[in-house]
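Dear Dr. K.,

Following up on our conversation at the group meeting, I've run the structure prediction for Lasso peptide biosynthesis PqqD family chaperone from Streptomyces nigrescens. I'm pasting the input sequence below exactly as I used it, so you can double-check it against your construct before we proceed with anything downstream. Let me know if the numbering doesn't match what you have in your notebook.
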Amino acid sequence: MSVRLHPDVVATDTDDGTVLLNERTGRYWQLNSTGGQVLRRLLDGDEAPRIAADVADRHGIDPERAELDVTAVIEQLRAARLVIA
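The predicted structure tokens came back this morning:
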């Protein structure tokens, strides 16, 4: 799955995660550090199952839980029209 930012959206990494700004509407969203990592990896071309496996390993959580969480982040990014898949 190829994912890219919506043309109106810019992303900036912060100490606490990532901030996304829709320059057309002025609305912004803040992702925590894990959400920001998920976004960056998606933009780099990584697939959701691989990202979820790494999240599970890094945080010591159940792989199925990590996959549900990563999928939820992706769906929220799509629903907010921050990314295009």
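Two things stood out to me. The chain has one domain: 2-82. The longest helix spans residues 63-79.

Best regards,
J.T.
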